[in-house]
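Model it.
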Amino acid sequence: MTAEKLQALLRIESQLREHDFPPQIVCETTAFCNFRCVHCHHEALERPKGHMSDALWSRIVTEVAREKPDAEFWPTFYGEALMLRDRLFARIRQARDLGLTNLVLNSNGSYCRDGHNHDILTCGLRKFILSLDGLTKETFEHVRFTRDPHGKFEPVYAGVRDLLELKRQLDDQGERTPTIICQFSKMERNEHEAEAFAEYWLGLGAEVKIREKLTWTGYVAAENLTRKYTQRIACPWGNNTCAIHWNGDVVACAVDNEGRFVGGNVNQQSIREIWTTSMRAFRKAHRDHRWDDLPELCRQCIDWQAVGATYYKPSGEVYQSVAATE
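Modeled.
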């Protein structure tokens, strides 16, 4: 790790603070996915897969609406939430109607079809992020592998283009629609396409998010990250994110896909109770640099070195984000 990189990370760490309620909540509406991406652990997932119950969803969004309605709330975690179709849109509308103002959905793009685009744009989302990770058919279908015919390069790209066109139409009619962000996570296989990917989607009116290489908790190699660091920082993901599995387990962070660390379960406790007890101790260990007191998942992780992402806007503006869920 270069001295410049370390200083940048230390600046990020200096902004971390204790929160009485999570500023970001990642809520797993479903653990099922129709893709088998090369950088994703989903195919080897050991924990049971399921859908979050309506009762638990209501319990969560009601508490968030009461405690912190402007929290960044992601109704997705380790699955493709749009597989729930109308059930998901009803849930997002419920959250919106309760007063949640910062709803962010991530998707693989395979459901930008069959009339879903209108619901995506009008259900109450603030941002809709499409993880695409490739500009050519060969690269896209290698990285974001699926047997779903709707998930192949041509239909996904056509669906996202249709989404952007419908957004333009609705915006012209005065509708409030979400920001559309096309995301590119760098890997050895695709990084040569990053610049052209950005140019393509910016030209169609989308924002673009470029994320540096991650190991995704050790699942793939990322030569830009090292285990030979002399100093590490408290993890912004661990400090700012409340990550909830479909069964209610609150886990270490937004990449604790197996739930190796469970701080509590929101079927039995409120988010606030879990956040201010076991999860507070977890966060404090990070900020105090008591690495030996952290769960093994955190002790072994090196992805904190790649926190943040670069965003590009069609206007030409470029900015860095270090939000916990980036």
